[in-house]
């Protein structure tokens, strides 16, 4: 397969999403950073950055498991917000001398990458015709079968009202 060809495979688990994998890597980098001696001076900032980083991948996972694109998109927006929160907190940490500027840039770039991937996934889901597993019809049920069931239910309700 050449690099211009995109292979689409069905994503069955949130762990299969590249954005989840990148967010997980970011959280692990944040945990490694906040274990350093410099952050020992400010455990509340270390805890806050960790929580924000964990929130990114947690919201990707929770949204995916909801089973509808609409809910997934809502959780992706929350994840995107948490990604911005990590960047802001990294800036404060850099300003306080808890991490070198080069490390700050590297982690901020990682946040921007994840945020961009979240935006791309949001745009994709908003334009998707498939609304999510929650709305999937049983494969054996056709549109005609569904219409027949709805008409039968309406007739049953009319009989109760008469």
Tell me what the structure shows:
InterPro entries: 23S_rRNA-intervening_sequence, 23S_rRNA_IVS_sf. The longest helix is centred in the middle third of the chain and has 27 residues, at 69-95. It contains 5 helices and no strands. With 162 residues, the protein is mainly alpha-helical. The protein has a single domain (14-135), classed as de novo design (two linked rop proteins). The termini are far apart. The protein is elongated, with a radius of gyration of 22 Å. It is 70% helix and 0% strand. Mean pLDDT is 87; it is low at 1-7.
Write out key terms for the chains shown.
162 residues, 5 helices, 23S_rRNA-intervening_sequence, de novo design (two linked rop proteins), mainly alpha, Four helix bundle protein, disordered N terminus, 23S_rRNA_IVS_sf
């Amino acid at each position: 397969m050449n690099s211009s060809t995109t292979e689409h495979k069905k994503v069955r688990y949130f762990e299969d999403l590249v954005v989840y994998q990148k967010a997980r890597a970011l959280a692990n980098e944040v945990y490694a950073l906040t274990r350093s001696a410099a952050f020992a001076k400010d455990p509340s900032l270390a805890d806050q950055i960790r929580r924000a980083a964990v929130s990114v991948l947690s919201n990707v996972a929770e949204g995916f498991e909801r089973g509808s694109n609409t809910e997934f998109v809502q959780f992706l927006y929350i994840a995107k917000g948490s990604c911005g929160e990590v960047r802001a907190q990294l800036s404060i940490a850099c300003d306080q001398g808890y991490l070198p500027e080069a490390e700050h840039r590297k982690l901020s770039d990682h946040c921007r990458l994840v945020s961009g991937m979240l935006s791309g996934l949001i745009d994709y889901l908003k334009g998707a015709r498939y609304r999510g597993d929650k709305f999937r019809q049983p494969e054996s049920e056709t549109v005609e079968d569904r219409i027949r069931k709805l008409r039968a239910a309406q007739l049953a309700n009319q009989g109760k009202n008469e």
